[in-house]
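note to self — DONT lose this again. spent like an hour looking for the file last time. sequence + predicted structure for the chain T wanted, 317 res
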Amino acid sequence: MSDTSEKLKRLDIDNDLRNKILPLCRLKYGQIWEDKMSGHRVGVLDASVEDDVLKISQNKKVRLVINDPPYNVVVGNRNTENLFKKNLIEYIDFSRKWIKNAENIMDKDSHLYIWLGADQNDGFQPLCDFMIMMRDFKTLKSRSLITMRNQRGYGTQKNWMAVRQELLYYIKGNPDFKVIYTDIPKVLKGYYKTINGKMTDNLERSRSDCIRPGNVWIDIQQVFYRMEENVPGLYAQKPLKAIKRIIESSSRETDYVADFFSHSGTTLLSCEILKRKCLTFDLDPLFAELTIRRLENYRQTGKTGWQWNNPFPEIDS
């Protein structure tokens, strides 16, 4: 039987591995990679620094921002520079800075989505604190609190299994929103209504045989090593299906989409597939390099990730 274990260890906790890969990274802090095919831009920049965000945007206004910042929750029992837990006041100050920078490059009619967590062992911070902070941004209006259900979780012996990820949705101005349908077929009749003198049920009135996604997403598979889109070496990678759903509903072809925490490059790849232009960056040059390599690998092979294979074949991990 072939070895299906990931060929790359978690990059944010293995310093020896990081030191091997860093020389392979084409970008250093302050630098930007320009994609000449589709107009994407990838940088090594700081989301909390105004000049860095203006540098990646080049005075362009974006229709959609999708950010997946560190949750201020220790992930996998490790507190690292990328998945850190710090003083809550410091975390909210950091968040306030990058939210302000995002607001600054957003179009007058635009969307903002923020993945965030709640530490059930520490008063559910930072989710509730972050939401209260967002009330200070008067141009950003809350629209929905979406929950995506993971297939795997933790804490099953003395607590309910933690399987949820929260997605905050805000808008600026009055942007268009496109209804996107899931792959889940409608099976239940109900919601009767008289139309032109005829009593009809919801199946008769529907524009699709499948249901619309609500604010609880149960139809998206959590990324793991047996899926093609998996990027080894990373943690808590967001599924392509989730990001594509956001992009399709909240932007149009050729629109600019921004992501301040590129991580595995899922937003960039989704933009490539859906014909949007992505402006993305990460403070960690390893993640920026992975983001670029994932796009290049997709163009060369048609594959959305590496499954369990090593995205850095130059090294012996």
